[in-house]
Amino acid sequence: MDARFDYYGTATGARFGRYVGSAGKAVADSGLPAATQELVKIRASQINGCGFCLDMHIKDALHAGEDALRLHLVAAWREATVFTDAERAALALAEEATRMADTPGAVSDEVWAAAARHYDDDQLAALVSLVALINTYNRMNVTTRQPAGDYHPGQFD
User: Fold this and answer.
1) Alpha-carbon torsion (2, 136, 85, 154), positive or negative
2) Which end of the chain, N or C, is surrounded by fewer C-beta atoms within 10 Å?
3) Would 123 be classed as within a structural domain?
4) What is the CATH number of the domain that holds 50?
5) In a domain, 68, yes or no
6) Residue 37 exposed, middle or buried by CB count within 10 Å (0-12, 13-18, 19+)
7) Would you say residue 1 has pLDDT above 80?
8) Torsion sign across C-alpha atoms 55, 60, 63, 66
């Protein structure tokens, strides 16, 4: 598959990408566990069908030492026994916040309460920001049909 055009090669796309990347640094530097961050990015990218982001975040997670089995089971996290209760709460929040248009009221009180039991206010802010961030990247990459498969860990550092 070829990209529709070189989005990141345009002045506006490159500038916007840098700004979004700067927002990502606030999340990356937060107290939200790095493994949870990658799981959330992977799950939202699965929902949104973003191969480019899946390629990146799966490879980054593996490079950081994440277990391959856990990555294979992200799409079936409800049935898998390899995730902590905190990770499950983060994945549930990520799903509901990603699928806002599908559910009246978007993120349910039950899902929010589960996340709030496991994360402090700063971590919750990071989680909400992360979901917004990965959904932004997914929309940029899916719309422009960015191809997957060629990413190397650390490529955009």
Assistant:
1) positive
2) C
3) yes
4) 1.20.1290.10
5) yes
6) buried
7) no
8) negative
